[in-house]
Amino acid sequence: MTSVNTLPAPEKRTSAAPVPVPGTALGWWLADSWTMTRRELARWVRRPGLALLNVAFPVLMLLLFALFIGGSMTVAGGGDYTEFLVPGMFVITMAFGLEGTMTAISRDLERGVVDRFRSMPMAPSALLVGRGVADMLDSVVGLLVMIGAGFLIGWRWHGSLTAALAAVALLLLLRFAMLWCGIWLGLVVGRPELVMAVQMLVWPVAFTSSAFASTEAMPGWLRVVAEWNPLSATATAVRELFGNPGVVGGSWPTENALLLAVLWPLLLLAVACPMAAARFRGLNR
């Protein structure tokens, strides 16, 4: 009689990879946020023309005002209009970044991208964080290009390097506040074609500031509005740090421009961040 050796049945194998055990919640959040940031940065590579256009537009505005309009403009307290204008254009560039953020958020909403990402096993806030990091990197590049363009047309800073870096920090703080305002407005608007209606409000805010013209030449009521404009606070503070002309006292907002240049963005962040987070959580409910 032949004996048959009974061997244990082989284990059934599957092609699925083992599920990794998460280390920390913070680690997963950072990984998800970086993935969303890379998604946004990949658009720069796929669509370089759009990225170049976003950088070229503020440079064209700077050249238009400096070369064609600057000859007829006067600066309070004297001084060259180009040195007055360039810091103001830095502020306008940071403020107008709000439009790009709004457009990107509303486009993702309309195409259902936000819903698809929210249904995936990832940190829900990573989508907004990735958007924010990519937009801030874009703003840093845009600001460096504007600084280079300012140097080419004769602008210089006359203070210390520390003061110049502080001015750059104030500009990026303003951009960060505008970023979260753009995220909230993009979530509220929801469709790219409606973004234009909101964009029309950005221009009056920009032109009723001291970015392009000194408040000394404005009518009394408009001067008060312009001096309390958040963009005016950053423009005046940046001019003071760069040592450029146009910083004239006489009112509380102009004499405390450095303080307001910090308080205004922080106030905008205190309002926009919770509202954007609440709106994002309430999508499709």
Structure report:
- The chain is an all-alpha fold and 285 residues long.
- The protein has a domain at 86-281.
- Helix content is 71%, strand content 0%.
- It contains 11 helices and no strands.
- The relative contact order is 0.13.
- Residues 1-22 have low confidence and may be disordered.
Features:
mainly alpha; 285 residues; elongated
Write a brief caption for the model:
The protein is mainly alpha-helical.
Instruction: Indicate the percent of residues in helices.
Output: over 70%
Large-scale geometry: elongated
Main beta sheet = none
Q: Structural class per helix/strand content?
A: mainly alpha
What's the overall average pLDDT, rounded?
83
Low-confidence stretches: 1-22
Number of contiguous helices: 11
Listing every helix as H and every strand as E from the N terminus to the C terminus, the arrangement reads: HHHHHHHHHHH
User: What is the first-to-last residue Cα distance?
Assistant: 74 Å
- Give the DSSP E fraction (strand runs of 2 or more residues): under 5%
If you compute it from the alpha carbons, what radius of gyration comes out, rounded to the nearest whole angstrom?
A: 25 Å
Tally of extended strands?
0
